[in-house]
Design a protein that fits this description.
Radius of gyration: 20 Å
Shape: elongated
Helix content: over 70%
Strand content: under 5%
Structural class: mainly alpha
Order of helices and strands: HHH
Number of helices: 3
Length: 85
Amino acid sequence: MATIQKSVRQSVSLPARLAQRVQTLAKNRKTSTNRVLVELIETGIESKETEKSRFFELADRLSATSDPAERKRIKETLVRMTFGE
């Protein structure tokens, strides 16, 4: 038997340009702006979780490797992930 997830109503203020982009996406997909917002939020959360997992995977590899070149490469990647390009 499928479980029903309860929806929670939230009020969010969007900058006008962003709201227009969301409305355009909804129109192009022939769906509601609410559905587009939910999909964008879900995608964003999944992306952050993937990024976090990758960060910890690299940190584990950094502590496990003894190769100086590999350590340097991993450190540079971790710095870019933390502070940007």
